[in-house]
Amino acid sequence: MTSTLRRVSAALVTSAALVAGTLGLAAPAEAASLCATDCISYAPVSADTRTVRASVVTTGYVNVTAEVWAADKSARVSYMVDGQTETWTSSWTFTSTGGLKQNTTYAVKLVAKDMLGKTWTEWRSVRVKQRTATWHITKINLADDSDYAGAGEFKAGWKAGTTVKSPLWSGWQSKSSGGSWTLSSSNAAATIVRVGETSSPKVFLELLDDDTDIGDFGCGTGFAPSWDWGTNSCADWATAGAYVNLPETSATTSFTLYVAKTAPVKFTVQGYVVTTVS
């Protein structure tokens, strides 16, 4: 009898084990954590004159964040954003949100987190590039000298960004409607060099025409460009200006400046800028 009971009990235990195995009731093994060790397989960073970018590839589906920090990792200076909508993926492309300086090295912090909450952090170093812009004014085409009788008597000044060159020539120069000034690229007064130039600076050139009696040029006052336009008993003046979009590569860009349609002195300005990005 005892032997029979033992055989029955053993059979019941074996049957229960088979049922549990069939139904998947055995305790599951602990899932592997991707980011318990290195889960970032590829993460190059690059920069132009204003933006840092990072491309991150991971060994599996994780969540990644990126930030730009000071080179010594002492403080965060910019967040980085990813253009995709997925929360968990294996490929990420980040772009900084601003606040970076040209010719400056930063640290990029990359943090990957897997679905078990484990994180893996890596750092990269990147230098924001610098743009040097050499501006040249080459020609001023005078459409209307603003004088009803005879030629106008002119002084001029110009600026690129915040850098001013004035006067563009010494003394007063006589010019009638339809005339022009041609300026050599070797003319120091017609050239401005700016290191760390922005991506879309504005360029201005102002012409002032004496509008008083002969021999009383400008009512005896000195010429200081005001970067606007107007008329009074002493002079008529106008400013031509335009924003110039500069590339993120070394290149030469031509530009043309225009005055307002209602300006008393009417002219256009031609020039070019040589940018070096390094």
TrEMBL record:
This is Fibronectin type-III domain-containing protein. It comes from Longivirga aurantiaca. Keywords: Signal. The keyword Signal applies. Residues 1-31 form the signal peptide.
